[in-house]
Design goal:
The structure is a homodimer. The first copy, chain A, is mainly alpha-helical. In chain A, 58% of the residues lie in helices and 11% in strands. A three-stranded antiparallel sheet of chain A has the order 1-3-2. Chain A binds a DNA duplex through residues 23, 26-27, 30, 39-42, 55-57, 65-73, 76, 91-95.
Chain lengths: 156, 156
DNA sequence: TGCGATTAGATCGCGCACGATTAAATATAT
DNA sequence: ATATATTTAATCGTGCGCGATCTAATCGCA
């Protein structure tokens, strides 16, 4: 018995609001990132690697992507001189990914982007933070619904 | 002067929470839609066309996509027998898109999906509705920041 | 009437996202 | 010690998303 009702149009659906807002965000970012030759997922990787070297797998866990997406993305970033990819000598399976000096410099250059995006949201910072937390809570719930085994709330 | 501060990691960024939550939602939908041979954008189109025939352009405005994405998507749906694509005799530029009987039947069949997604969110309906409205407000702000001309709030 | 501008879709190229599969390195179990 | 299982990236095929461009139909206006 669900306390729900059938929704008739995409406009009423939470999934669609996420989908459309994500695309709108992408359209805001695109012209801001284009001068730096970055796509949005590349920008996220740049942020994530700013202060650490990670194996591809851990990087993927952080950004929510797997090798089938990250391998070509990282190769493009490597071709642009932004990242280094080298095997871990202790475990030749693992590919350690880190920023080059050029990558770190680019991250510094892109620091002004955040303020532009903040402005484009048209919402006060406190609301944005609350919204982010709520969306993260939703994401956590969705992920747990797919993978109930790794639920830290239920591991005694 | 912005009442903001520089954020160091993707995990703190609203854009990333949207990006990741949208992907998580997609991962919930995928196995639910796969038995029907639908992708998520196709499912949205199916919902949008349920009770109306629309020119491609208007359909695109409703779902946030343009002809370069919709044309191949609709051709795949047409190949599956779900939609009809015919030119408007009054204006041969416009392509009128509508569901076939098979398309309407498929929409009926997919009605059970919503309850599964609702459950996966793990949030009460009132919170989902509030979150959706907040995200839609954000999306409206982002879109207006890109296209300030069509702002109904400032047209006298 | 005619011709330039506008509008609507279609097409192309590139990059992301993911299911499925593969190959190689490492862990394990006997 | 060796066979088996697991883990890690890479690869492949398909579909979405979008900037840029093209063609055709329609509109506007002198």
């Amino acid at each position: 018995m669900h306390m729900s009702r059938y929704v008739e149009s995409p406009a009423e659906m939470l999934c669609f609001s996420l989908y459309a807002a994500d695309h709108a965000m992408g359209r805001v970012y695109r012209p801001l990132l284009e001068p730096f030759g970055l796509t949005y997922p590349q920008y996220i990787v740049l942020m994530e690697l700013a202060d650490q070297t990670l194996p591809l797998r851990a990087l993927g866990a952080a950004v929510g992507l797997e090798s089938n997406t990250l391998t070509p993305l990282l190769k493009r970033m490597q071709a642009g001189g932004l990242v280094e990819r080298r095997r871990n000598p202790e475990d030749e399976r693992a590919l350690m990914v880190s920023l080059t000096d050029k990558g770190r410099a680019l991250r510094e250059e892109t620091k002004s982007i955040q303020a532009c995006v903040f402005e484009a949201t048209g919402l006060p910072l406190a609301e944005l933070a609350a919204l982010r937390d709520k969306i993260n809570q939703l994401r956590g719930n969705l992920q747990r619904s797919l993978d109930p085994k790794k639920d830290p709330a239920k591991t005694p």
